[in-house]
Amino acid sequence: MHHPVARTVSLLAGILALTVAARAEDKPAPDMKAMMEMMEKMGSPNENHKLLDYFVGAWDYRMKMWMDPSAPPQESSGSVECKSVWGGRYFHTDHTGKMEMPGPDGKPVAREFIGAALNGYNNMKQRFFAAWIDNMSTGLTVLEGAYDATKKVFTYSGEMDCPMTPNVPMKVREVITITGPDQYLFEWHERRDGKERRTMEITYTRRK
Question: Quick one: CA torsion of 174, 179, 180, 181, rounded to 10 degrees?
């Protein structure tokens, strides 16, 4: 299992290995002070992490989902709580709600929906990331993206496992638009048969 301590030890071991290799080849040793300063910089939250502070708090949401693009969307609601963790390096979000899914007879059945997200900003890649799991799957979806400050829009893209095509990952894109101090819009797009279409829209309102 990947562990942050193991990652830190690995980085320090890498620095030591570079130093030993340089001595063996009779070359100047790496600047240890500079390398440690860079490690500290890469591991510290910055202004990009502060952008994600906006999402901290309790929210209520209304969701629309288009199972069939030619039919009206299915609507549901739920709640979200987002917390800043590990000194503002990451943001953990818990989602709870109800979602109507087709039952054995084809009629919609309300099911409990639970999901969790981990968001952050990777200083080394200079990219935002979003990781997601929920109780209706057994996989992990990880997307990366950027922020447009003029439009107040986060755009992430990547791939996810699709039960309809288990051996072919599906390309997905999510767009998060901050529409006010206490509201934002989430839009989910899937690429099927070479065409992208929006399949989900969620409006989040900060709980007072």
Answer: 10
pTM exceeds 0.70, yes or no: yes
Using CA atoms, how far residue 65 sits from 16, 71, 79, 201, in Å, is 52, 10, 16, 7
User: Closest Cα to residue 46, out of 140, 151, 147?
Assistant: 147
Could you tell me how many residues make up the chain? 208
Supply 168's token pair.
Answer: 């072919």
Instruction: Give Cβ neighbours of residue 116 (< 8 Å, ≥ 6 apart).
Output: 92, 93, 94, 95, 132, 133, 134
With a cut of 70, say whether residue 15 has pLDDT above it.
Answer: no
Same domain, 26 and 79: no
Structural domain range at position 16: 4-42
Q: Total structural domains in the chain? A: 2
For residues 152 and 189, membership in a common domain is answered with yes
Give the pLDDT band (50/70/90) at residue 84.
very high
